[in-house]
């Protein structure tokens, strides 16, 4: 069973930067996908960034060019670097993992990111 713990959220002014982290533990089977989603009140959870494979990524349209996903498999850590933040980026950010063979999905508890105007 995989366990995900996010950290690093907080309050930042518009135009600023923030980095959130996801510590991944447990039986990390491959192949898998992992990444970040976000959800704000009244909206559906939406893709932010995803590792489709170890070196292939996908980004939500609203964050392309501003956010960067990265990972370190040696420490089982994943990060989301967020630059040029906007008030619309305010949301709870969730770490996500899916084991493809067993089709098992795991979500972290979420970390709040608030961008003030």
Description:
It is a single chain. By secondary structure, this protein is mainly beta. Helices cover 0% and strands 58% of the residues. The protein has no helices and eleven strands. Strands 2, 4, 5, 6, 9, 10 and 11 form a seven-stranded mixed β-sheet that branches. It has a four-stranded antiparallel β-sheet with strand order 1-3-8-7, with no helix packed on it. A hairpin with a 2-residue loop joins strand 5 and strand 6 (56-59).
* Beta content: over 45%
Query: Which spans of ≥5 residues are poorly predicted at pLDDT below 50?
Result: none
Helices and strands: which structural class? Answer: mainly beta
Tell me the number of strands: 11
Radius of gyration: 14 Å
Q: Please, how many helices?
A: 0
For the record, give the distance between the C-alpha atoms at the N and C termini, rounded to a whole number. Answer: 40 Å
Average pLDDT works out at: 96
Global geometry: globular
Biggest β-sheet description: 7 strands, mixed
Helix content: under 10%
Along the chain, the helix and strand elements come as EEEEEEEEEEE
């Amino acid at each position: 069973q995989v366990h995900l713990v996010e950290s690093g959220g907080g309050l930042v002014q518009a135009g600023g930067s923030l980095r959130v982290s996801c510590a991944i533990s447990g039986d990390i089977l491959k192949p898998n996908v992992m990444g970040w989603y976000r959800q704000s009140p009244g909206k559906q959870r939406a893709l932010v960034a995803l590792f489709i494979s170890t070196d292939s990524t996908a980004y939500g349209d609203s964050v392309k060019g501003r956010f960067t996903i990265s990972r370190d498999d040696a420490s089982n850590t994943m990060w989301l670097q967020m630059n040029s933040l906007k008030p619309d980026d305010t949301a709870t950010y969730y770490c996500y993992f899916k084991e493809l063979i067993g089709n098992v999905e795991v979500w972290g508890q979420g970390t709040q990111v608030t961008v003030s105007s």
